[in-house]
Write a structure and sequence with these properties.
Number of strands: 7
Order of helices and strands: HHEHEHEEEEE
Strand order of the largest sheet: 2-1-7-6-5-4-3
Number of helices: 4
CATH topology: Porin
Largest sheet: 7 strands, antiparallel
Structural class: alpha+beta
CATH architecture: Beta Barrel
């Protein structure tokens, strides 16, 4: 999930999929704020759990579902080398059952779809990012992980040419 919040890594997924990303953004220090909301929960077999453990699991799942949106802000240094070696959606790190499709790859928009044919929980995801300017990127993400759905928005802004000690 940590990579979910890295908008620029998602934006540059095209490279890892065999295409050079065309999106035109500045290199340097970026701040990304993501807001994610999940709904639904994977089914957990509680039949072999003790009543106490089953109750804790059920309470934990209810609390997680009632939590509401999660907001996270991170800073990352985007370099040409990092873009070229981006591992987001790298085929070697994805399940063999996953298919990745770049729907759009222009100077201002990148959209990627991922479909994974998992026996237990088939997964689909769509990520859409738009460079409003070279210093501002906005995006959305929708994932369906079997019975669980995750929706997110991402806003990234360029801060500086210099990254200081931020990696």
């Amino acid at each position: 999930m940590a990579k979910l919040t890295c908008a620029l890594a998602l934006l540059l997924a095209g490279y890892a999929l065999g295409q050079t990303p065309n999106i035109d953004v500045r290199l340097g220090l970026w701040e990304t704020t993501s807001v994610t909301q999940s709904a639904g929960m994977p089914q957990i077999d509680t039949s072999k759990m003790t009543p106490e453990v089953r109750q804790r699991v059920e309470e934990s799942m209810k609390a997680r579902g009632a939590k509401g949106p999660t907001t996270r802000t991170t800073r990352e240094c985007m370099t040409k080398d990092k873009i070229e070696k981006n591992t987001m959606f790298n085929p070697q790190q994805m399940q063999a059952s996953c298919k990745r499709t770049i729907v759009t790859n222009t100077r201002s928009v990148v959209e990627v779809k991922v479909e994974c044919a998992n026996e237990k929980y088939p997964t689909t995801a769509t990520m859409h990012f738009e460079a409003v300017s070279r210093e501002n990127v906005k995006g959305t993400m929708k994932m369906n992980l079997g019975p669980m759905n995750i929706d997110g928005t991402i806003n990234a802004k360029w801060l500086s040419d210099s990254c200081g000690d931020v990696k």
